[in-house]
Design a protein that fits this description.
alpha+beta, 7-stranded mixed beta sheet, globular
Amino acid sequence: MTGKIYGISDYRPVQFNQTRLTELSGRRLESLRTLGGGVLDTYGLSLRFATREFLVGQERNTKANLGIISKDLADPLALIGAISSVGVAFWGRGSGNKRLVDRAASNIQALGFQKLFEQFPNLLATVRASEGGRTKPGEKGGNPATFLGQMFGQRGILRAIEQTLKTRPDLITDIVKGDTQIYHILKDPSLFTEFVTEAWPVSIVVDNVDGTGKAARAGIANRGVGEHSSVVTYVVTGSSARAIPDEYIEKVVLMGVLDPSLNVDSGWQTLLNAFNDVSGISQRNMNLFSLDRARHADEIEKILKMGPSFIEDKDGDVMPAIGAALGVNIFENGQPLHGMMANIGGGAEGGLLLPISWLGGSALMAFASKVALKNNNWADRRNLSQKEEEVIRAFGFDPHKPFNVEDLYEKPFEDGVGIYGGITDNYWIPELTGVSMVNNGSDTVISSVLQILPNGIASILRFHFGYVNGEESTRDKMEPIISQIKRVASDEDEIKRIIHRISYDNRYDLLKLGFGAEYYPAITPIADHYYIDWEVLSHLSDPKNPDRIYDEKDVAIINAVTKEFPNMFVTGR
């Protein structure tokens, strides 16, 4: 029996809900208000109450090592995800502009991370993978992002790291990647414990928004404010994580299949048989996911002839994989989504699939060539260009060797949390609803977050926020500072005046984090400071460059900030 291809529009899931709902205790709420107070206050929000709805209430594995992140920081990290989603709802959702979506999410996430982690004296959080720099169809790359190498923590620990880098510059590897981004890799933040013995390294893998285009597009779904299944997402773990380049990665996800001898090159029939052996589900009853891309079409046809059906979507491959791992839906053929095959997406999303392992599945991967896939021939996917191989090797990977998500983490079941915050209603996990503005006089905004712990416990946290000084005030405060400057300033002199005023109105942190999120393709983060590569910046802002990212206002902002706040920068590495 040949399987079928279903699109989102004509293949509706039937919700399978066996959850229990609890309201967070007063003590838990007070802890959230304390740890999350910095970001709540910045944006004029109050946390009224929150609920937890368990999707998986029992442990899925016994390997997990739960600690401070899982027990004490998981809920505050979910709170940051919820607030980030609110910011996108105000300043990106339905805008038609992907940069605005990414800018809103990245600015709030960065501030949230800094405000939270600086409360822990020795915590050093480093971004080990992020998406944004890679060019995509219709995009020039360099979208705003919480970027690779960015660090968060108390000023004291960051400056101690900075002193270490002055004497050990070999801990940073610089790579120029094409014309759109420079990668600046810390070889491994855990190495700093050799020099700053009190440092407690924490790794962050982030895709500021999975489904950016969905959030940006206004449509019929979600009351005209974006399409389904757009989320802010990140994994925070106490494990050392490998830095991951923002390159194409082929991904296969199968639940219950834990055979370490399998990889993406094992062959479709072998992989399907492995799933059949552990699940007892025949191939004709299987549901698989793949992004709707021309490059996937021929391979999907081969798998369809083996029996499985496919559900395709235009954008976002993180949430289908997580939805398959949770198994919260039963589709029209009486089966849930079982996994993903014949799918190629971004590198950061690979690291975000760590909770697949926590929930009892496998995420198998291999690097693929964006250059070779321009002709949409699946067979060419491993024909990496010399530049692609150079970048991948510099990150410490064998470009041609398959791997799995657990290979990206030194201790994959170490203390941590996976966060997936709903910007729009979620097709794959219907309990994960999009940001809702309640306009009934209550001045309430509701934001939902999926939280997954290393033991496989998964729940939906639903935060009910109030506006301290009204919705308009909160909306104004959530506007990213670069957006605000570009909107208000009509010329270079006005840009200088606005940035000068920031010296006096307590918005330095917002400017610094927003600046980094916007201009990271030409920045090396040196712990608490930035180093600007002016040659790269000149190229990325050159009107003659067809891949130009920055315009005259960007150049004026950069010049004004470097002159007004010289202590934000270092002049050498």
